[in-house]
Every structure is written in C-alpha cells, then in structure tokens.
Design brief:
329 residues; Rossmann fold; 5-stranded parallel sheet
C-alpha cells in the first residue's frame, strides 16, 4: 500500500524529487518499512527517532525537505489505519505520527548540523578514491608507511575515516553514486595489496576467526577492512564477505571452529537477520564468541547482548574481545 501510493505520486504528479533515474527515494521508503518492522518488534522507538533524523537529512539533501519524507510517513499511517481496526491502529500509528509532527525540526537539524573536518591526509585520500585513482591513493598510504605508521593504525586512523567521510558526502548528496562505487572498488584494491602487505604484522597468535556481514547486508568493504586489520594483529582470518544466509554462516562456524565470529552490522533494519545468525551460530559452536560491530549493532546493543552476542565499538575493542579466547575457556 505504501509503495503503491508513492508510485502514484511519482508516476502521475510529475514529482521532480521522486522522478530520478535511480528512484532513490522510493528505495529509501522501502527500507524505512523494514526499519519500522524492527522498531515495533523490539520496541526500539528511540532508534526510530534517530533513524528518522537521518532519513530527513537524506531526503532534504536530494531536493525534498519536508514533503517527500512526510509523504512516506503519511503513507505508513494510512496503511496501518487501513489494515488494522481501531483502537489498535491508533496505538500503532502513534510513534509515526510523533515523527511526522517533529519533521520540520528534524529537517532543520539535519540541514544545520555541523560536520567534522577530516585530517588533511584523510581528505587527500578521499579525493583520490572518488576519482578512482588507485595509484595516487596507494602513494598516499605508502608515504605514511614509510614514515613509520603501522598498517593496522593506517586502517583505523586513515582508511576507516576516509570511508566514513565518503559516506557523509553521499548522505549530503555531494558525491554521485558512481563516485561512491569508484571509491569502494579502489579501497578494496588498496586493502588487498601494497602497501598493506603482511610484512610488519604481529606474530600469529594461533587463533582463527571468521568475519562476515550479517545476512542481507551488502556492505562488503567493512568486513574486508576488519579482516585485514585482524590479520595485522596476528589472528588467522577467513572472510565470508557479504549477504550469506544465517545457515551458511553457521555451517562455516561448525566447519572451522573459530574462537570468534565477527559480524559487521550496518543497517538496524537487519536486526532480525542478525539475531537469527547469532542463534544458529551459537547452536553450531557454543564456545565461539560472536562479536558484532557497526552502527546497527550499537543501536541494538541491548537486544544483541541479551541474545548472546558481544558488541564492539570499534576494531580495537573487537580484537580485545576475540583475544580473550573461546567462551568458558
């Protein structure tokens, strides 16, 4: 019902903010629906407010401040009231109505928020990445290694901030989607080759770990960066990458008996998939530590930890949790 209403607006009302070739705003509306499912199931209403602030900023940066996101909210309210009888429908729609009432404030906050200024070397790296200039980006990193910066510090102090800055530029609609893709592909090449060769890595600690996205998560760059970082810290790492179903992740855990499984978790809308992965992997190997990180993991920390997962705030904390060894060891 929601998508049908938005499709009609896009098709018949000639909305310039909706009529883009990639139809991004319609895709965001669908993802917002997945978010609502998680929020209601796990009662994460504070998360709904924060995520709505992000959506308001994304819509505003793409030429539709109040109206398009307001239309998404209105469509969900109408859908709830059209399918569910009162008084339940009114109770269910109330959190969305609250966001709708605050929308002008959310938009203003999104448009007026201050942005951190990256370090100059991070900015230089970002500019190379969005051009897809792997050679120039590699020279930047090689110069830092030559100056004595360890590769693991290079990942957390330069490469991850560069990835975050590209994400912020995308959020503010300052880079095109093709530039974000160029940057992602370039960063994958950098993480897999010089100057991030394994010379200078810590001695192997005899601990093997697995790295994966939560099921349905397509952000393959973060697990690659995490796997590379953990290799430099002396762990033996197998990277499963993106989008594996929970059952396949659990089979990998059973096959390799890792001391820890890292699940990178970006979108809070994938919380149910993360919980399913935790359940199946705990059954496959009860002693394996399941460590989750990313913005989705931090937002749902209490839910994940109640289910037996561990939440790490950054790569270094993740390494410390893994280094503690198997559970009950």
């Amino acid at each position: 019902m929601v998508l049908k209403r938005l499709e009609l607006e896009w098709r018949y009302h000639h909305r310039p903010d909706l009529a883009k070739e990639d139809r991004q705003l319609l895709q965001y509306a669908l993802e917002f629906g997945r978010l609502l499912k998680v929020v209601y199931r796990h009662r994460l209403f504070a998360v709904l407010h924060e995520e709505s602030r992000w959506y308001a900023g994304v819509f505003a940066a793409r030429g539709s401040s109040h109206d398009a996101f307001g239309m998404v909210l209105d469509s969900w309210i109408i859908a709830i009231q059209g399918v569910i009888k009162p008084p339940e429908c009114n109770e269910l729609a109330q959190p969305i109505r609250a966001i709708r009432g605050e929308l002008p404030l959310l938009v203003a906050q999104a448009q007026n928020r201050s942005r951190p200024f990256p370090e100059p070397v991070v900015t230089r790296l970002v500019e190379s990445l969005v051009r897809g200039d792997v050679r120039d980006a590699r020279e930047i990193l090689s110069d830092m290694v030559a100056k004595g910066v360890p590769p693991d510090r290079l990942i957390v102090e330069v490469m991850l901030p560069a990835m975050a800055e590209i994400g912020r530029r995308w959020e503010f609609n300052e880079v095109e989607i093709f530039q974000e893709h160029l940057a992602t592909e370039a960063m994958q090449i950098l993480l897999a080759g010089p100057p991030l060769v394994m010379t200078g890595a810590a001695p192997k600690q005899g601990m093997n770990v697995l790295v994966s996205c939560v099921p349905g998560d397509e952000h393959a760059l973060v697990p690659l960066a995490l796997a590379t970082y953990m290799e430099f810290k002396g762990l033996s790492v197998k990277n499963l990458g993106r989008s594996l179903p929970a059952a396949q992740i659990a089979r990998a855990v059973a096959a390799f008996s890792p001391v820890a499984l890292f699940l990178t978790f970006t979108a809070i809308s994938r919380l149910d998939e993360a919980l399913e992965a935790i359940e199946q992997c705990r059954a496959a190997s009860p002693r394996c530590r399941i460590i989750l990180g990313g913005s989705g993991a931090l937002a749902a920390k209490a839910v994940l930890e109640d289910s037996g997962g561990l939440v790490a705030g950054d790569f270094e904390e993740g390494f410390r949790l893994a280094a503690e060894g198997p559970k009950d060891a």
